[in-house]
Model the fold of this input.
Amino acid sequence: MAISSTFSAAKLDSLLMNYCSSSSASFSGAYFPYQQQMKVFPRPNYGNKGMLSRNGGVRCEAAEFNAALGPQKIDPSKASALSALQQLKTSAADRYTKERSSIVVIGLSVHTAPVEMREKLAIPEAEMPRAIGVLCGLNHIEEAAVLSTCNRMEIYVVALSQHRGVKEVTEWMSKTSGIPVSEICEHRFLLYNKDATQHLFEVSAGLDSLVLGEGQILAQVRQVVKAGEGVLGLGRNISGLFKHAITVGKRVRTETDIAAGAVSVSSAAVELAFMKLPESSHTTARMLVVGAGKMGKLVIKHLVAKGCTKMVVVNRSEEKVAAIREEMKGVEIIYRPFTDMLACSAEADVIFTSTASETPLFSKEHVKDLPPVSSEVGGLRLFIDISVPRNVGSCVTDVEGAQVYNVDDLKEVVAANKEDRLRKAMEAQAIITEELKQFEAWRDSLETVPTIKKLRAYADRIRLAELEKCLSKMGEDIPKKTRKAVDDLSRGIVNKLLHGPMQHLRCDGNDSRTLNEALENMNALNRMFGLESDLSLVEQKIRAKVEQSQK
Done:
């Protein structure tokens, strides 16, 4: 079976691991996986201490922070007269209250962090809604989603403040995993707005996978949306982002041949096993598969494709194994319950593990008493563990006669056909660039929504005040029918007056000309009616969150 290439080597080469020193937080670098290899795409300008900004340039957050403080100073003599909130508004350090919310991804992947760290951060699917709720309870996080797979743990958020949002999420990750913040910062990557969007599109398209073009990641992105249905924290921006990422993943696989001959993590695991076994034992090696879920089923399929006609499958129930047996006609698939796992391991030369267990199934104590395997299979019992968290404890590597491989070891397998995979990735990037523009336009179109709400509220305040004056002049014994008629009249007048401005503010983002006009109209209305003098929407949200946390 031909094995597709990966960009893991380039990922590691292009990874930016410099930090921006600041007393308030630790910063990490960001990376762009393919731009170093595909010369047609612009390469980010990496600095010594940097973070990727929205336009791809690098900025030093601490330097920018300090530079901004310079020209904006508060008169000490007047400072005491200002409320705490007013000081926040006039302080350059808190200029974010006038900014648009940012989409941020805080992530660790197979390209940046070892499996030992990723498994501690992994979040089971059943825990996703709770995790989203906790994340959105943080002061500067408005929306959230978690993409947790065997190769990555990425948290996507809409942050009311980039710096504070990243700090809060990183501290939450540390608290839930027990990993120090400094260690997470060493291995994490941060991407903002357009860069974060592009990254998720590449993930969904299979460009960021260990195995380029693998299809399982698209199903995992789709599952994030499904798991977040009805969860308050999966809001308009993040939900729209993930749904658009699903569209991108489908387009890339339909319009390019990136998936042609593409392998999965499961097939790479099988290929790795056959690379390590002597060729003479390929048809005689005894195979054991622990777990008959999606990954386990794929392992079985690829073993059959390699010529295996007999294998033992250990699973909690026989139902899934029976379904696989029915599908794989002519192959002897023997079911065993989990209670027989060690007994079956004693009779196996190669053991594949792919269960959702949060604790190791195999420890040093379990493996050291297993009988040795024959020299015909190389004298080593192979454990191929593609689970995160791992099913095989790292201590098993100390056992003589045992060799353990995990998902990080699959890089060795998927390094073939590099040029062909690069060509396919470039074709996919053209689609991603097109879809990225559409998503950014849609998100820009949302900027007019606060102005629409403010203008409506402004007009309604005037209507109610004038209505009250009118009714007071008409006396207290006004019939209900008359009162309602006057109220309806005032509403009708306001609605007709607002109809024109509202129409010129609404835009779906598909037409760039219409979008630019809508944004110009928004700025004009803000100036004419003084709508910007109100508390900014971001500021209101932050104040509400802080007040809620203090209750």
Observations:
- Residues 265-415 form a domain with the Rossmann fold fold (CATH 3.40.50.720).
- The radius of gyration is 29 Å.
- The longest strand covers residues 102-109.
